[in-house]
Design brief:
The protein is of the alpha+beta class and 153 residues long. 18% of the residues lie in helices and 34% in strands. It has 3 helices and 8 strands; from the N terminus they run βαββββαββαβ. The two termini are 24 Å apart.
């Protein structure tokens, strides 16, 4: 999804979360920037590590959840992809919203990562902030991630 960069003039992630949780507020002035999307394709030979640690990002239930890159490992398929494709390089905080035509289903996407020999992944990446914008973390765990399994692939 999109990236919320400010709520009622607040730009720090903890302040944005507090502003949204404030029960006295019934109206919010939000600044939202669209996430950039891109698609990657890679072969996944059996027995070769993907080289990613992924986190479940819940959207109501695990069946409607996406996943975010929590850690990139050296010498996995993702690392090789990044070296060969710097423009479409994966990074911590990127969200996988579809894997091999499976959209927003964490368990089903994990199954694709574990069993498919070929992967087509739709990635949502935060848009780079302009130099004058406040610096926000480019990771997805500012109050959005609920406890979920962290498959090490």
């Amino acid at each position: 999804g999109d990236i919320v960069v400010a709520v009622n003039g607040k730009t720090e992630p903890k302040d944005i979360v507090a502003e949204i949780k404030d029960e006295k507020k019934v109206c919010w002035d939000c600044v939202v920037e669209p996430a950039e999307s891109f698609e990657i394709e890679m072969a996944r030979p059996k027995g070769v590590s993907l080289g990613l640690v992924l986190r479940c990002i819940k959207k109501g239930s695990v069946t409607s959840a996406s996943m975010a890159v929590a850690l990139l490992k050296i010498d996995g398929i993702a690392d090789i992809h990044n070296k060969d494709n710097p423009v479409e390089a994966l990074a911590v905080g990127h969200r996988f919203v579809e894997v091999n035509d499976v959209r927003l289903g964490f368990d089903q996407m994990v199954q694709q990562f574990q069993t498919a020999e070929y992967l087509r992944i739709v990635v949502n990446a935060p848009s780079p902030l302009p130099p004058s914008s406040p610096k926000l973390p480019h990771h997805a765990d500012e109050g959005n991630i609920r406890a979920g399994r962290r498959p090490d692939m």
